[in-house]
Amino acid sequence: MRRQDLEAMDFEELWLLHEELTKILAEKITAEKRELEKRLAQLNQPDQFGGAEGGATATGPGQPPRRKYPKVVPKYFNPLKPTETWSGRGKQPRWLVAALHSGHTLDEFRIHENGEASHRDAGGHEH
């Protein structure tokens, strides 16, 4: 419809056209909203990411489940308390930071592959 046609229409005709357009737009908006909600529901399905099995649970509504990570084996141990270990990832534990500041090297705390601790005596040095 051309602008001249609209300007030639009287008030009643323009108002009816306005109401008709409003009705059509409302229907289209509702249909578009339904379609988007369907797509969103599809994206939020948990089985899309491999399901919630094996501890991979959603962290909150609308968020995908956490990714599975392999078990991290400890690489370093505290000789004063051999149960305290560190995998080498993230922030260094306090006992290791203190030992490194006192002059020890990281390699002294390494857990060897055959299960033995480092070559040092397990309780012989102060940290």
Automatic annotation (TrEMBL):
Domain DNA-binding protein H-NS-like C-terminal, residue spans: 66-111
Entry GO MF terms: DNA binding
Annotated segments matching region Disordered: 42-73, 107-127
Pfam families: Histone_HNS
Protein name: H-NS histone family protein
Lineage: Bacteria, Pseudomonadati, Pseudomonadota, Alphaproteobacteria, Hyphomicrobiales
